[in-house]
């Protein structure tokens, strides 16, 4: 019984850490997508600046959330994921809107 409780506790702690890393990894991936779009000419300077501001806003909110409680709550993770989903959609739309620099 003790082993089962320890296993469940460890799994829950590990899942929480993986979720926090998931937000950070998504932010990094989106920054790389923006940089690649700027290099290839798929994004104009204005589009690149707007997407970068959006990413910085998400980063600032996540950092604030982490400072406030020592980590991200489920609601904060969900809000971050939602904002990252919207940002990812914006990156796609702007990279494929036929505007080039």
Could you name the key traits of this structure?
mainly alpha, single chain, 3 helices, 101 residues
Which blocks of ≥5 consecutive residues have pLDDT under 50?
A: none
Largest sheet: number of strands, sense, barrel closure: none
Amino-to-carboxy terminus distance? 63 Å
Structural class: mainly alpha
Provide the domain count. Answer: 1
Task: Provide a count of the helices.
Answer: 3
Strand content: under 5%
Shape: elongated
How many whole angstroms does the radius of gyration measure?
Answer: 17 Å
**In total, how many beta strands?**
0
SSE pattern, N- to C-terminal: HHH
Q: Can you give the helix content as a percent range?
A: over 70%
Q: pLDDT average, as an integer?
A: 85
Question: Can you offer a commentary on this structure?
Answer:
Helices cover 85% and strands 0% of the residues. It contains three helices and no strands. It is elongated. The chain starts with a helix and ends in a 6-residue tail after the last helix.
């Amino acid at each position: 019984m003790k082993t089962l409780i320890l296993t469940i506790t460890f799994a829950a702690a590990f899942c929480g850490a993986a979720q926090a890393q998931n937000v950070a990894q998504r932010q990094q991936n989106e920054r790389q997508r923006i940089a690649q779009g700027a290099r290839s000419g798929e994004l104009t300077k204005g589009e690149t600046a707007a997407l970068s501001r959006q990413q910085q806003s998400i980063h600032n909110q996540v950092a604030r959330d982490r400072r406030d409680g020592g980590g991200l709550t489920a609601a904060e993770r969900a809000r971050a994921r939602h904002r990252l989903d919207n940002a990812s959609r914006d990156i796609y739309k702007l990279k494929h809107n036929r505007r080039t620099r």
